Amino acid sequence: MTLHQDHLSPVSGVTAQPNGPRWTWLARFARSEEGTILPFAIPLVVAVGAISYIGVDLMRHELFRTNLQATLDRAALAAADTARVQTPRETVAAYLAQADMAATLAPFDAQTVQNGRYVQTSANLALPPGTGNLVPALGTARADTRVSETVGNLEISLVLDISRNMATGTRMQNLRDAADAFINTVLPADGNSQVSLSLVPFSEQVNIGWPLFSQLSTNWVHNYSYCIEMPPAEYSTATLTQAFTYPQAQHFQWDYDGYSNTRTNTVCPRYSYETILPLSNDATALKARVAQLQPRAGVAVFAGVKWGTTLLDSNSSNLVNGLITQGTTPTVFSGRPAQSTDTNTQKSLVVVASGTNTDSYRIAPSLYANQSHYAHWNAYNFWYYVSSYVPVSQRNNWWRFYYPGSTGDQMTRNICDSAKATGIIIWAVSFEGDAATDTLMRNCASSPNHSFAVSGSQLTGALGSIARSITNQRLSQ
Fold first, then answer.
1. pLDDT for 69-121, tens place per residue?
2. pLDDT of 319-329, one tens digit each?
3. What is the DSSP string of 23-46?
4. Measuring CA to CA, how many Å separate 150 from each of 89, 208, 383?
5. Rounded to an integer, what distance in angstroms lies between the CA atom of residue 418 and that of residue 445?
6. FRET label pair with 107: which of 161, 192, 233, 320, CA 20 to 30 Å apart?
7. Cα radius of gyration (the chain)
8. What is the C-alpha to C-alpha distance for residues 332 and 203, in angstroms, rounded to an integer?
9. Beta carbons within 8 Å of 313's beta carbon, 6+ residues apart
């Protein structure tokens, strides 16, 4: 019997394999496809981690850079303001310090020229220690800026309310402060010949002063003040009709306190510092005028806007040349007001009103007809005299109603529209006025963005904003 031992000895040509546990695990591992990605996953995880850290660096860097850029832009805009006492470098450094940014300025260039100032600088800021910091190049943020405050030829009329409304509270002092700030902004200390500023105070009338009055055709009868009466049609045109012979306004005081013969608040403001100061670049002289302004009589916004417009209208250039000849206006303003088509000249009228137009009255013509009458009413408050010496039954014969406030409001709308039609930009401010005043000023302004309704010290902010807009301060890079 032959025994088969295939299970006891290997088949010829085949090597026997051990069956122990250790070799079984190795064989299974060799045959398995699991875990083959591990050699690729490890460097991928490292790369993702590195990219994440770089992303943190980038985000930190961009955050600091944008904050630095915004702060530097604001600082440069402030430094370009020629009205600032600080030097441009001091201004920029102060802004950065206030923002807690210890940045270095390199390079820094600031130059003041005749028509403004420009500031150009770069700032480098070392980022504080924090998450990231993997890329050394991202450890410093940099910002660059260039700002210019440029002033082309500017013609400005500043029309200010000095009516009896301004006697309330601190209105007049707030007006003085705001006007000073406005003048300081639009007129550099060197008396820039590119900027002419006309100051036009108004109450119930506008005292245009002898230099202007003497150039017009008028029925001149007295020297107590220099106001003229204009027909309503004159407020429907930006151009003053110089061919017309204007009546000189009566000089008298209507307002009465009930017991005294006061004559300081005449219908036509009587004092020299209340007259128009035309086309000036002398900030000191302008502010000296403003400092003396006092509340006077009724309100005639239309008269203020009319004269402010006249001093911006190119058809008044002969009047300006006459003022130059008299020596009351700088010779550098020869040829002004410029033509409305002159693209290098910006014409702006800024009017501040505390109320709508009021009713107005005049002395009966028969009682204001000769030199004796003129002198008499210069010596007496109208109602003081009438109450003291005229029988009650006769008093209505001594005066006449001249126009209602509503007519004054319509004439204001007319002259505002006429001025805007010639290209004059009107900035209108209602200062502690009622809703009707707000509406009148809003309709007078060139746009809603050119209109303000403010109270108290807000007036300084409003006129400051207007002044900066007029001087065309802009970020150029």
1. 999 888 888 888 776 778 889 998 899 888 888 878 878 888 876 566 888 99
2. 999 999 999 99
3. HHHHHHHHH--TTTTHHHHHHHHH
4. 19, 32, 53
5. 12
6. 192
7. 39
8. 30
9. 238, 239, 240, 337, 422
